[in-house]
Amino acid sequence: MSSDLTEVEVIAPHFKRRLSGVTSTVIQLVPIQNRLGQKVITFGPGLPGHLPSMDYTALPALWRPPEGRKVRVWHARRNIEMLPGIILRDVLRMPLKLVFTSASQRRHTGWTKWLISKMDRVIAVCQKTASYLERESTVILHGIDLGRFSPAPDKAAAKVAIGLDPAFHYVGCFGRVRHQKGTDLFVDAMIRLLPEHPNWKAVIAGRATAKHIGFEEELKAKVKAAGLGERILFVGEHTNINAWYRALNLFVAPQRWEGFGLTPLEAMATGVPVVAADVGAFAELILDGETGCMVERGALDSFVAGIRPYLADPSLCQSQGAAALVHMQANFSIEREAEAIGKVYADLLAER
Question: pLDDT of the chain along its 352 residues, tens only?
């Protein structure tokens, strides 16, 4: 949008066109950061035009620090964004401080370790991620927009608004339909549990990419064979996913692997408790037994055991959903995340 870097203090590079969790993070955070006075601009493809941005012709301006500062911050979130930052700072001698946010939960390659070692500061999105970093880091959990994700004033009306029958309770599983996301675990758990609980239905919201269409079709066939085609609903992808959360009584996060995972936060912010696999940051987001239930990753029996008490007693959904909302409002606003990142920036900008 703008290439005037006179006052810009932070560059947020984004060098992948493919939509990802990183993309979503940048899109949500940058407007909040600027509203808080952090003076952030994006750089690279794949982001919407309403975000403040610079193009490649503005790169020479990085040799001049912003007004009143000695340095500017380059905030990378991928390897392909760390490396250009190192070149700009160490080869071209631009006055930059480098920050990297890590979401990975695996042992890093030697190349990635080297890149991370060159960063001035590292942010980890959760304690589990921090445990894989062989250097000091600042843990800053993701937050979400608590205005967008908020409880429905009337649960029955929320169900009607998206075409669901208000006479039923609903348990949902949202996200890409694929093995890694555990959609099959959710379907298998519902095939076991729904016959025991005739007042419940299940909703699967999300799309299967071309590679995973066959996987989705197999699940639909399994549901049909179980005679539950009217009670396990595949509703596809929706841009108004917040409206679908508001219609739920319970949310299930059955992922086999996850870097962080925002869906439990989105559900809890909507006043819905969460049964989640112990992957990603889930154990750091959910208060086990208070705002939901943690279960064993990839274990169908554990999921069934974790979900069953909620279906048997919908009042448990209501009480834990209320606790989840309080927990979210106290700890997981996107403003809180932006403020914490801003403190990292401020420390670096104050250095000479």
Answer: 455 789 999 999 999 876 667 888 898 899 999 999 999 999 998 788 899 999 999 999 999 999 899 999 999 999 999 999 999 999 999 999 999 999 888 888 999 999 999 999 999 999 989 999 989 999 999 999 999 999 999 999 999 999 999 999 999 999 999 999 999 999 999 999 999 999 999 999 999 999 999 999 999 999 999 999 999 999 999 989 999 999 999 999 999 988 788 899 999 999 999 999 999 899 999 999 999 999 999 999 999 999 999 999 999 999 999 999 999 999 999 999 999 999 999 999 997 6
Positive or negative CA dihedral for 87, 93, 96, 97? positive
Of 47, 43, 41, 42, residue with least CA distance to 17? 47
Round to whole Å and give the CA distance between 106 and 322: 34
Q: Calculate the alpha carbon distances from 348 to 62, 141, 150 in Å.
A: 16, 20, 35
DSSP states of 284-340 as a string?
A: HHS-BTTTEEEE-TT-HHHHHHHHHHHHH-HHHHHHHHHHHHHHHHHH-BHHHHHHH
- What CA–CA distance (Å, rounded) separates 346 from 99? 12
Question: Where would I find the H helices in 36-109?
Answer: 79-86
What residue type is 339 in one-letter code?
E
Residues 102 and 170 in one domain: no
Question: Which residues, at least 6 apart from 280, have a Cβ–Cβ distance to it below 8 Å?
Answer: 105, 126, 128, 255, 257, 258, 259, 260, 261
Angle between helices 300-312 and 183-193 in degrees, nearest 10: 50
CATH of the domain at 161: 3.40.50.2000
In a domain, 1, yes or no: no
Q: Tokens 């555990």 sit at which residue?
A: 182
Residue 167 lies in a domain: yes
Nearest CA to 31 out of 333, 260, 334, 262 is that of: 334
How far apart CA 22 and CA 145 sit, in angstroms, is 16
Quick one: 300 and 216 in the same domain?
yes
